[in-house]
Amino acid sequence: MMSGRVAGANSGVLARAGTRPLGSELVEVARRWADSQYRLVVLAAQFADSVEWVLESPTAAHWLAHTTDVEPCTAREWIRIGHKLRDLPQIAAAFETGTVSYSKVRTLTRLATTDNEPELLAIATDVPAAELGRALAVWFRDNNDPEHLEAHQHAQRGVKWRTEADGMVIFTLRLPPLLAGILIATITTIVMRSRPRHDTDQPWPSVSQQYADAISEILTNGTGPTITGIILHVRGDGATLNDGTPIADSIIERIAPQSFLRAMIHNAETNPVDVSNRRRHPTARQKRLVHERDHTCQDCGRRDLLQYDHNPANATTGHTITTQLQLRCAPCHHKRHQQ
């Protein structure tokens, strides 16, 4: 079932279903699918606790995977969620009625306990599924001792990979936030300093392909002289990486003595303090201020490969000030100057 909040937001669209028959059918199928997902995880947990699979498979997940033609990891996840919901009645009820989706429940059941269930469920109902992981990460940081948080993240590190049908290999990495920030900054630096290589079948590689080429360069040649900078935002409500990923204050304290730190000053309204400069290229401080203000490409909303674009052009104004700088990803920046 679909949540009342989502259904209400789309009531105007559904009222005009005659003009959008495919959209109307999709909404109805999504409702039935959401209801089936709740029943699926509940039954999967009940089946795992039974003896029906014992004589045929090594585990209940293997039986489910074979019978429903899914991967064992998918079946294990159904069973895990079903078991967790038994101790989380509020989340289970919200899932059953469609107040929260399977995607949210899957994330919630990794952190929720009987004690924190109401608080986490309130967070889940207020943010979209795409933002729930980061919102819960902030909550987890703020409600745990820094040493316990570091120990937990260290224990949860891991790498997995699997081969796809075309022979390509997919990696899944779970890294502590600081290490992940270093990796992201390194491959982004390599992409930004390199010219895309033209392929015979694709003149302009996608951003994802350019990141893959950056990792290939690291594996082949190492990082070489690449110098990267990690921006850590320290505010009254905690520290985060540049993309908003929360990071424990204890990590800041540990790396501060060995780091060259620059402060970003915020005013009472939490806005970054403006600075001015007559140079053609923005200073490092100006870049931090503009990034803190804009966060994403001002044309397409992308969060990676961001550059600092003069608007109006520097050739017109003759100076570089933060109020006339905007974040744009490299493709949009290039397109804008072509126009």
Structure description:
The protein has helices at residues 4-9, 11-15, 21-49, 60-68, 72-85, 89-97, 102-108, 117-126, 129-142, 146-155, 177-193, 207-221, 249-255, 284-294, 314-317, 330-338; strands at 158-163, 169-174, 233-235, 238-240, 246-247, 276-277, 306-310, 320-321, 325-329. With 339 residues, the chain is mostly helical. The protein folds into three domains: 4-143, Orthogonal Bundle (Arc Repressor Mutant, subunit A), CATH 1.10.10; 158-221, no CATH class; 262-338, no CATH class. Helix 3 crosses helix 5 (72-85), helix 7 (102-108) runs parallel beside helix 9 (129-142) and helix 11 (177-193) packs across helix 12. Mean pLDDT is 81; it is low at 1-17 and 274-279.
Average residue-wise pLDDT: 81
Note the gap between the termini. 47 Å
* Rounded Rg: 24 Å
Total number of helices: 16
Biggest sheet architecture: 3 strands, antiparallel
Portion in strands = 5-15%
Secondary structure: number of strands: 9
CATH class of the largest domain: Mainly Alpha
Search tags:
mainly alpha, Arc Repressor Mutant, subunit A, 3 domains, globular
Please outline the helices and strands.
Layout lengths: L3 H6 L1 H5 L5 H29 L10 H9 L3 H14 L3 H9 L4 H7 L8 H10 L2 H14 L3 H10 L2 E6 L5 E6 L2 H17 L13 H15 L11 E3 L2 E3 L5 E2 L1 H7 L20 E2 L6 H11 L11 E5 L3 H4 L2 E2 L3 E5 H9 L1
Describe the structure concisely.
This protein is mainly α and 339 residues long. Helix content is 52%, strand content 10%.
